[in-house]
Amino acid sequence: MVRARYKWGMVIVLSAFLMIQSADTYIISAVEPQLIQEYHVTDAVLGILITSTLIVGTVLYPFWGYLYDKYSRKLLTVFMAVILGATTWINALSRVFSQLFVTRILTGIGYPLPSGAFTLTADYFEPKSRGKAMGVINAASPIGYLLGIVIPLVVIGEGLNWRYSFYITAGLSLVIGLMIYLFVKEVPRGSSEPELEGKVASDIYKVKLSDLKKILTNRSLLLLFIQGFFGTIPWTAVSFWIITYMSIVRKIPSFTITVVLLIWIIAMVAGNIISGYLSDYLFKRTPSGRAILGTIVVFLSALLIYLTLYSISDARFYILGVLTAFVLPMAGPSVNAGVMDIIEPELRGSATAYLNFFGSAGSAVGPGIVGIIATAVSLQFAMTVVSAITWIFCGIVFTLLIFIIPKDIARFHELMKARREQLNHMP
Description:
Elements: H1 4-30, H2 32-39, H3 43-59, H4 61-70, H5 73-93, H6 97-107, H7 114-122, H8 130-138, H9 140-157, H10 163-183, H11 213-216, H12 219-249, H13 254-285, H14 289-309, H15 314-327, H16 332-342, H17 348-363, H18 366-376, H19 379-424
Helix pairs in contact: 1-8, 1-9, 1-10, 3-6, 3-17, 4-17, 5-6, 5-7, 5-10, 7-8, 7-17, 8-13, 8-16, 9-13, 12-17, 12-18, 12-19, 13-14, 13-15, 14-15, 14-16, 14-19, 18-19
């Protein structure tokens, strides 16, 4: 049995890597004015660069997921840290835009880290405590977003070249990669399942290509994938347009916007962590517990986004905005833990990769739809309608999951019991 202190230390190290990865994703947006000035490019060209990098990461999710199910997750994560650190470092060395474009796209190779982070965490934490761990890991993304904005502001504010921002994130990625190599231990797949506790001494369960079809025939997973696609649409719809909304529609000063975003990010971190505890609490009482929490969260999100964006005063907008930021991420830990509850340990990396693949595809849709509707009606209406409709649809999907997922959880535990019997009869 792995000691609790070590397990949480491992989660913190993996979360730190996810923070840096998230910061690296957003940092190029923060240095956009400097890139335009130095390379004489347009916003549209930089937008293509950012999109291309994200596409590379999205397309590679299934590939990395399969590798994480077959080989050492620890060593693959170290390798990913080296890729992310090295390519980001090379970004800073670019002297012409074509060099930056190519090296930046290569950075996307190191983006599909969640596949490994979630599956490794699942084998450290037993089913009834996974939600808490997933909540901490999910909280890394908003913190990384904040770092991606703050690091360039500090660097440029000190009169340094924008390249130092990339040197910082590259160096941190390499340092964390070294920490993972030295301190994170690989554990056998499935060793945290109650039926296999003390039975799995080595990593005997690994994926085969023929096994991947099980992921697409699991009804609960398919519902989670559908939810993942539609559930990310409002996230990007809001995050991409919220600054424009506050600045142009509500005419809020830039400094106030910065303070508001900081408070909202803190609320998101708290929402992730607290929802992890709620997810485990409900799961201990019913197999549908995580789906019940997801249902409540997405329906409540649809209501809160309407109340927030249509607030009659800025004071009410700020207060409701904090509550909305707290609630919006609360389905995430339940979704990630739910994947681990219903699929074989040797398929969890691939299942998580497919979830992120569909989520990334959905995230690409939101900003464009809002822009089209905003042109025809208004930005306020567009953000509200797109977010509310997609979250209501996700609520319907989660409701179906309440009735379906208990059967898949039961099937999973029957499989684990069968494996225990096989292990008992092995010489």
